[in-house]
Design goal:
single chain, D-amino Acid Aminotransferase, Chain A, domain 1, seven-stranded antiparallel sheet, five-stranded antiparallel sheet, 12 strands, EC 6.3.2.6, purine biosynthesis, nucleotide-binding, ATP-binding, phosphoribosylaminoimidazolesuccinocarboxamide synthase activity
Length: about 325
């Protein structure tokens, strides 16, 4: 059993000879934020809620002819998948059949206040040519999806340009173009489903690999709060809430990384108050119910958000930090 930050992987059949194997993904109640690692608390029911949303999303992708590694759900918090070979250090050469592509692909439909695009623009590290113009609705909504690539197996993920993405991913520019098209398709599928269940999608990420015939397939999972920024009105109902529970931690992590402090010497965050854990758990449960059942259960999610805001005690700060409003940036006027 291999423990990842919020999932466990059990290998049933190892991949071999360019052919996928099989494995079980178990969605745990653990969580991590800001590349810090696993946090002290668990969110009861988070794993089952994330699994239910992932399974529903895999069904939507299948209907849209987007191939995935999903095979079947085997427990309330576990799925059986095609298991691809992994190359964490680039030693296996170009990505081929039965292999993961060691990249994360980020898609953005909007640039809300919490988007890293704003921080990178202020720091001068953003390629403004990659930012589409704002759409008819104005900021923060983009006229078309913005697609970026990040590293996956470095200690801290970083955004990279297309040329470096091809090198790190072991793929060629034509493959990157296909991944961009597939990622846009993933975004549009999730955007439509969000609209159908009373949510709004701002951004998210996808990961891909090649099946045994070197056909690109969506791997890991998509359509859960862990890798998408969902909103209910102006309030995030996603991992942004978990980040909000740890004020100042992002800046701490950025400082530790800049100072090259080894991860095993990083300070441990304080545990959460029980009422915050309970309120967060109810948001996950209510969100999963809405995602899998539809808008008929939307009232439960509204109540869960209200309870979370009450438990936090600072609703204005929550919406100011994570709201959908955003100042225009260069290249997106």
């Amino acid at each position: 059993m291999k423990r990842w930050s919020s999932k466990d992987l059990k290998v049933l059949v190892p991949p071999a000879g360019g052919r996928p194997g099989e494995g079980i993904f178990v969605f745990s109640d653990r969580y991590s934020v800001f590349d810090f690692g696993v946090m002290p608390d668990e969110i009861p029911g988070k794993g089952a809620a994330s699994c239910a949303m992932a399974v529903r999303s895999f069904e939507l992708f299948e209907q849209a002819d987007i191939w995935t590694h999903f095979l079947e759900q085997v427990a309330d918090n576990a799925i059986r998948i095609q298991l691809l070979d992994v190359d964490t250090d680039g030693s296996k050469g170009p990505a081929g059949p039965g292999r993961t592509i060691p990249l994360q692909v980020v898609y953005r439909l909007a640039l809300p206040r919490e988007s890293s695009v704003h921080r990178r623009a202020a720091a001068g590290t953003l390629d403004h040519a990659t930012v589409p113009p704002y759409g008819d609705a104005g900021a923060p909504w983009l006229a078309e999806p913005m697609v970026e690539f990040t590293t996956k197996y470095e200690e801290t993920d970083r955004f990279i340009g297309r040329a470096e993405a091809a090198r790190v991913g072991g793929v060629d520019p034509a493959d990157l173009a296909v991944l961009t098209e597939l990622t846009t398709g993933v975004a549009r599928v999730l955007e439509r489903h969000c609209a159908a269940v009373g949510l709004t999608l701002a951004d998210g990420k996808a990961e891909f690999g090649f099946d045994g015939d070197r056909r690109p397939i969506l791997i890991d999972h998509a359509g859960t709060p862990d890798e998408n920024r969902f909103y209910l009105g102006a309030t995030p109902v996603c991992k942004e809430l978990l980040r909000f529970l740890h004020p100042g931690l992002r800046e701490v992590v950025q400082r530790l990384v800049a100072d090259r402090i080894p991860r095993d010497r990083w300070p441990r965050p304080e545990p959460l108050a029980p009422d915050l854990v309970d309120a967060t758990a109810e948001i996950y449960a209510a969100l999963a119910a809405a995602w899998t059942t539809g808008p008929a259960v939307a009232e439960r999610l509204h109540r869960a958000v209200e309870d979370f805001v009450t438990a936090c005690g600072n609703p204005a700060d929550l919406r100011q930090r994570t709201g959908l409003t955003a100042a225009p940036i260069g290249g997106a006027a």
